[in-house]
Amino acid sequence: MQVTSMLSAGYLEPMQNISRVQKAENVKEVDQANQQREQEILAEEQAIKAKLGSNAQVHTVYHYSVGSDGRRYIVGASVTMKGSEEDLNRVSGGIAQEDLQSQKQEAQDALKKDAQRTEDSQNIIKAEAEKREAKLKEDKTEDKKDDQERELENVQREVVAHEAAHQAAAGEFGGGVSYSYTEVDGKAYITGGEVPIKLKEGGTPEETLRNMQQVQRAANAPADPSGQDRAVAAKAAAIASKARQQIIQENSQETHETEIARGTPIITPVSREDEQYDSDKDGVQSLLASIKELEIQNLMPAA
User: Fold this and answer.
1) Spatial separation of the C-alpha atoms in residues 129 and 123, rounded to whole Å
2) Domain boundaries, the chain
3) Which helix (DSSP H) or strand (DSSP E) does residue 289 occupy?
4) How far apart, in whole angstroms, are the C-alpha atoms of residue 38 and residue 45?
5) Angle of CA points 75, 76, 78, to nearest 5°
6) Angle of the 227-261 helix axis to the 205-219 helix axis, nearest 10
7) What is the pLDDT of residues 95-120, one digit of tens each?
8) Residue ranges of the chain with pLDDT lower than 50?
9) pTM value surpassing 0.85
10) Nearest to 70 by CA among 105, 18, 110, 9
């Protein structure tokens, strides 16, 4: 049975052609084709009801058409069935079976769509989580990179200041500074340096001492002298100590010679007969001459 429409109640009766109806009243022959079709539709309806059983609810809406004999014939029906799935499944080839299959298909399609939406949502959540994790790793890498750059920049400032202190204190005993570099991501940072300091001795112990004292100041000029700096300072201190000893020795020798030069003079007595008195001397010169004569006579040491 083919369904042509679904009506909630009643039926739509097509408009009848009055002249055709009046003409049909004169026709005594029955429209056998429409009559046979009506019987088939009613029989099919009864078969469906029989298959459904008494527990199912059936509601039928008939569709009519006027035949050639002027009578109305059932030419279609819409059957609505309500019942258990088992009852509806017993109807084969009817509208209930078609509706059931359609509903099943729609349910399956809905389940597939829900599953697809769930999968899509999970994929989106997973993708977002992966993005956050990648961003977190990137941020950690950037932070680590920034920390490394800051550390290298601090080292660079310290090295430059360290070598500048050496140069400023070394003066003529210092050479040109040379740096060593470390390259990170295409950028070079100063991570080491050196200023040569000459251990130049002077022409005299005093000059050597002054030179070594300046070398010591140059080696110890930075706030944090390196092991090499301390080694240079120690070597300069040793040379300075040697120069001090030489200065002490020289001073000691000079003092001894001075003491000998200033010691008690050898006095040779002079007789009065050999001494000639100068009556022309007067004032201080006469007095000094008298004192000298007295010292000689009494063998007094000189002051």
Assistant:
1) 10
2) 18-92, 266-303
3) helix 283-298
4) 11
5) 160
6) 160
7) 545 565 777 788 888 888 888 988 88
8) 1-16, 18, 21, 24, 27, 94, 96, 264, 266-303
9) no
10) 18
